[in-house]
Amino acid sequence: MSGPAVGDQAPDFTLPGTSPDGVRDYSLAAERGHPLVLAFYPGDETPVCTRQLCSYQDEFSVLTDVGATLWGISTQGMASHEKFAAHRGLSFPLLADVGGTVTELYGVKSVLGTRRSVFVVDADGRVSWRHVSLLGLTYQGARTIARAVQAATG
Hints:
Layout: E1 14-17, E2 24-27, E3 36-40, H1 47-58, H2 60-64, E4 69-74, H3 78-88, E5 94-96, H4 101-105, E6 109-110, E7 113-114, E8 117-121, E9 127-132, H5 142-153
Parallel strand pairs: 3-4, 4-5
Antiparallel strand pairs: 1-2, 3-8, 6-7, 8-9
């Protein structure tokens, strides 16, 4: 499996994403000092992705209670992300990796698109936990991710 392993420095990137004030840039380097959850997903408004991201929204406090920030990342553009976030009431940013560069850096690009994957990046910018789905029909829940964040922060 390619991409960063647990213990590796997370590849830095800057991508545009949704925010309450419209589109803005999000940079991994700017998030140092607290845990960051990167949730790569195949597509806006698809059945499993919708269930996954809506479940994260429903249990958002589970992640924020452990000090984590959550970013959803897919290869769709900002127009799709803005529509999806508004339709589903998502309060966390959806980042647009239109060229697939970041998806490739993290080793989750496949011939079928993006593999459903979650990376926990610790306060020092290292990958402390990762889960990459082979088929992408299931996903890691917010409580599982929160436990991974807690393990990384001691």
